[in-house]
Amino acid sequence: MRTLTLLLAGISLSVLGCSSAQKGAKQDADVDARVRRLLAEMTVEEKVGQMTQITLDPFAKSGKDGHLILDEEKLREGIVERNIGSILNCAGQARTAANWQEIITQIQDIATKETRLGIPIIYGIDSIHGANYVLGATIFPQNIAMAATGNVELMEKHGAITALETRAAGIPWNFNPVLGLARQPMWPRVFETFGEDPYIASVLGAAYIRAQQGDDISKVTKVATCMKHYLAYSVPRSGKDRTPAYVPERELRQYFLKPFAAAVEAGTATCMVNSSEINGVPVHSSTFYLKDLLRDELGFEGFVVSDWADIENLYTREMVAKDRREAVKMAVMAGIDMSMVPYDYSFYDTLAELVKAGEVPIKRIDEAVTDILRVKFQLGLFERPYPVKSMLGDVGTDANRQVNLQAAQEAMTLLKNDGPTLPLAKDLKVLVTGPSANKLSLMNSGWTLTWQGDKEELYPQDRHTILEAIRAKIGAENVVYAEGVAFDHELDIAAAVAAAQNVDAIVACIGEPTYCETPGNIDDLTLTEPQLNLVEALARTGKPVVLVLVEGRPRVIRTIVDNAQAILMAYLPGIEGGQAVADVLFGDANPSGKLPITYPKFSGGFTTYDHKTSEVQSTKGLNEQWPFGHGLSYSTFVYHDLSCDQSELQPGETFAVTVQVENQSDVAGQEIVQLYLSDLVATVTPPVKQLKRFKKVKIEPRQKQTVRFELGWNDLEFIGRDNQPVVEPGEFKISIGELSVMLTVPEFKR
Ligand code: BGC
After folding, report:
1. Is residue 600 domain-shared with residue 649, that is, in the same domain?
2. Confidence check: pLDDT of 4 > 50
3. I need a surface site. Which of 41, 256, 271, 629 has the fewest CB within 10 A?
């Protein structure tokens, strides 16, 4: 099947008559020949070393002011004696690009000059929302906020900038994009995803991968991407990180596999595996997920890296192996090519023993090492293992900052605006309050400068918190600040209420503290009580209350929604977030984000927008606070004339849908036009609707624009009773906004 995919790729490229395709094919052949030659010279230890990835910490000597110096002897032990092929992470905190360049140079010096075969190290890092471990880099909104922008071009720019700034530090491999679907809102990694919908995650994930890798990852501006965490990591039944998911194969294929399929199609070079289990089977131990599905069916040809300590976890946590030896054998035989060990040489030693004892065939090792070396060659690491000095100036440029600000502005999602209350006039006096108002860290959270993102002192002090941005916009004399509460306890609500007496409006910035992964687990999705109390007390003053939600997942705020006249979802908007919030509050930017996740009303019984009809249990509808796709604007958009160029569709045919969008206001604005499809009757209970296309358009005041979407037969597919994709005859409803049009698929010969 892998050969077949290759052949197909070759065919489609040659059909284009493209000489770069021929060049690409030649390069592939060259790379394959070089890999074969190198592999033929390698000892078992050298091969097993390539499959070993160690974190930076054990090599770190303390450094002044975060300036890290590595211990040469420890590096030699790892790279020369234990032959390790990869290093990851930042040893605690972000470094300057210059320090990174020194670190990478030191590592590559030893790898290329002191080892027998001179194989360079592939260094990997989590550049999750920008090059977030490089001081001074462009720190973008987290992925959930990028999904809210509905702007694919912006996602591409984010991808390209992040690749450039990561590679400027000398790092060629990025552990992103996160392609899990946020269909369990309690999960602490919701903010790393593109939300609950497989189509949005597929489109944005693929756009990011293409932008980061380009058509040639050996270019010094590009990085190898790592789609993660394959597969269904994002839906733990308990809502807690790294706990079991139970997903029937049909649902896996209908939803969770799709973004990964798109990422493979986009050519992602590597794949990281779900730390946990699906239906009782740890993914790190499963040939079905790692070979049958990933390699044979999706056609993935890069290499597979474990997640943090997850081979060890097979015997210490998952209890599917009795000891390390069994765990290593199980994982490697299932299809793990590289182990993120991460602290010691236990994997290396154990795997070498297993190979020598004939328990792991050398053929399997050769397969894994081939895939790893291929990526190293493709990255050009053999020719250019070192960072490019002149790229230091590429980090955090003004131009990149502008893109970042645009992303943060476009992410802003206006959930409620009675009156309208927003935008606020700039001559008003306001009270700014709440625990999220005056910290940069809270707008960035996990994966920012440190793993937990909580070291406020590391954040660039020239950027504005929400409070500072509002002061800068309307004058400090017009702004009163009283924090009111912390996340988990009250500070002085009475002082905040008193401060509200002399203002015209209250801006309450509430949400979540910083967190990442397991430390972000919660038992209740409801916003913490002190914050609810603050808003209730402020509402009693009778002044207009604007809530700004600074949160990585949709915390339940049902009891205070009626207390606020306006509610702005800021998500985790990144380092320009303060500016972006102030711009939207005071009308310098028109909000255009839409929720990429259903905002629940209650802390339980969660549903997604693409639920089944039976899930609507009462006349009150779903238990949602705001639906997926919701987001208001300062413009008024009205849809007209929805039409489809086909009323009947035959197998293999395509169809086009057009709609006219009118801006009936005097304010220019952007609208994300969302096209949904509903299969009215099917042999597997159909979702009420599914997003099939979206497009962001800018429309000037009092202007109209026609938006056209092309769809195909495959868009009518669902996963049938036999777990295979199928299109069934019947009626399909296409809807955009309040409008809809029908499409019929007549009986056809199957
Ligand atoms: C996370 C991964 C990350 C890795 C390396 C793990 O704990 O689950 O997403 O890439 O650490 O930092």
Report:
1. no
2. no
3. 41
Q: Is the pLDDT of residue 386 over 60?
A: yes
* Residue 226 near residue 556, CB atoms below 8 Å: no
pLDDT digits (tens, 9 = 90+) for 581-626: 999 999 999 999 999 999 999 998 899 999 999 998 777 677 799 9
Cβ of 313 less than 6 Å from ligand 1: no
* Dihedral sign computed on CA atoms, order 632, 633, 634, 637: negative
CB 394 near ligand 1, within 6 Å: no
Domain with 679 in it? 637-745
Region for 135 from its dihedrals, namely left if φ exceeds 0, alpha if ψ lies in -120 to 50, beta otherwise: beta
Give the position, in ligand 1's atom list, of the atom nearest the Cα of 178.
9
- Integer Cα distance of 379 and 375 in angstroms: 6
Predicted confidence at residue 18, as pLDDT, reads 46
Number of domains comprising the chain: 3
Q: Are residues 45 and 144 in the same domain?
A: yes
546, 580, 615 - which closes a domain: 615
Pairing type for strands 277-278 and 173-174 reads: unpaired
330 and 472 share a domain?
no
Identify whether residues 345 and 480 lie together within a single domain: no
Which of the listed residues 335, 367, 394 is the one where a domain comes to its end? 394
Looking at the structure, do residues 651 and 540 belong to the same domain, yes or no?
Answer: no
pTM of the model: 0.96
**At which residue do the structure tokens 């849908």 appear?**
657
**What are φ and ψ of residue 563, in 5° steps?**
-75, -15
Separation of 268 CA from ligand 1 center, angstroms? 17
